[in-house]
Amino acid sequence: DGGITQSPKYLFRKEGQNVTLSCEQNLNHDAMYWYRQDPGQGLRLIYYSQIVNDFQKGDIAEGYSVSREKKESFPLTVTSAQKNPTAFYLCASSVGTLSSYNEQFFGPGTRLTVL
Amino acid sequence: AQKITQTQPGMFVQEKEAVTLDCTYDTSDPSYGLFWYKQPSSGEMIFLIYQGSYDQQNATEGRYSLNFQKARKSANLVISASQLGDSAMYFCAMRDRGGNTPLVFGKGTRLSVIA
């Protein structure tokens, strides 16, 4: 079945550690996105990539890094510079089209907790 | 810049009744798309319905319909015949350019359906 997988589902990190969240899609989508969701809040954009080997910062990129070496994969690293990383992280992808109708498909999410 | 406003943090509705979730938006682009997503307690994001700015008719998908009032910049979601399984967070989102630009989300409305 086609879809987006994120791993792990739950992640615990000690302060000062870097951690990498995995996001893989087999939908053959060009674009991929990372969002952060805090309790009771909407989704805020961290990074996005419209094509392999290219990505752009979103609204809250500080303390995060990404890579896009393969079309299928868009891992997110939460660095020690991110002051408050405890949150729910959602990865999404969308197919390339010029239309504004371009649904974003979401993965199941990773819940990161800093101990 | 795009902005989505959802003014209802929480809503209650009796089972089998209809409910309207409010969404207003702001953009200077004449071409844009509006989306509604449902997020159950599991965290997954489920796409519900889409409305394009040039669409002449309000979008409908099963029990979901979108009350699109372009002049007022509102895109309210109407859920008819509410079911207990409709209890979830609902997010309004928009994209004001085509292609793979990211969606911008509102803060969401938590809907609780009462038996």
Task: Summarize the model shown.
Chain A has 115 residues and is an all-beta fold. Chain A is built from no helices and eleven strands.
Question: Your description of this structure?
Answer:
The complex is a heterodimer of chains A (115) and B (115). Chain A has 115 residues and is mainly β. Chain A contains no helices and eleven strands. In chain A, the strands form two sheets. In chain A, strands 2, 4, 5, 6, 9, 10 and 11 form a seven-stranded mixed sheet that branches. Chain A has a four-stranded antiparallel sheet with strand order 1-3-8-7, with no helix packed on it. Chain B contains no helices and twelve strands. In chain B, strands 2, 5, 6, 10, 11 and 12 form a six-stranded mixed sheet that branches. A four-stranded antiparallel sheet of chain B has the order 3-9-8-7, with no helix packed on it. In chain B, strands 1-4 form a two-stranded antiparallel sheet. In chain B, 36% of the residues are buried. The model of chain B has no long low-confidence stretch (mean pLDDT 94). Chains A and B meet through strand 4, strand 5, strand 9 and strand 10 of A and strand 5, strand 6 and strand 11 of B.
